[in-house]
Amino acid sequence: MRPGREGLRASPLLRPVRRATRTSPGTTFRVRRIRCHYPSGAAFIEALIVSEGEQSLQVYTTESFEPGEELLCEVFFTGLPGKLVVRAVGKKWHHARPRLRVRAGGVLRCVGSEWRKLLFLREVATGRTAFEQRRRHTRQPVLVEIRWRRQGEADLVPATISEISEVGALLLTPTQLAVGEELIVEITPPGSARPLEVQGIVRNIDHPNGAGIEFMARDMGGVTRLREVIRRLVDE
Question: Of the residues 56, 123, 163, 165, which has the maximum number of CB atoms within 10 A of its CB?
Fold first, then answer.
């Protein structure tokens, strides 16, 4: 039986926040996921569109998308020992044209760190680097509004989490953070009336739009509750 709202109560890692004011954070935006498989690394490289002012990927899928629609794309080519998920924005999509031997698909735009992921895959496809699953716990792509504050401070800063696992998350915030800073992150799971506090520490600031944080789980109870929060966010 899955724990309900009562199962997410106080823990050294995760505890309810009691506050009189109502807040809007916790909104989860559903982002569609599409899958794109390439028959070879060479086919993937050919699908990359690199020109002046253009960083895009030609994808082959029967799942239609609209121009400007934000998507999660699972990229995989034969021989790759795993899948890579990139966040992208739809540029155009077309139906299949069997007589012209044109497959259904379209073009996705990728920028920043998402484009760098594809460039990394290009290096893997050419054999210049190896694809390794560095994280023991796979981060789930989400898009959820949260609030955070520095340990010992009261001021809350609105931000967004775009990736999350039971051990950490990618925090998107314009505020400059430093490696080693301890934070309190407030997450409101779908179906909960109150936000929950998650203790974390900044582990890297390599992302141009935020920082990678590690959750400071001290016991299995905290980890279990965090897993339930992640399940609600991903399933929403």
Answer: 56
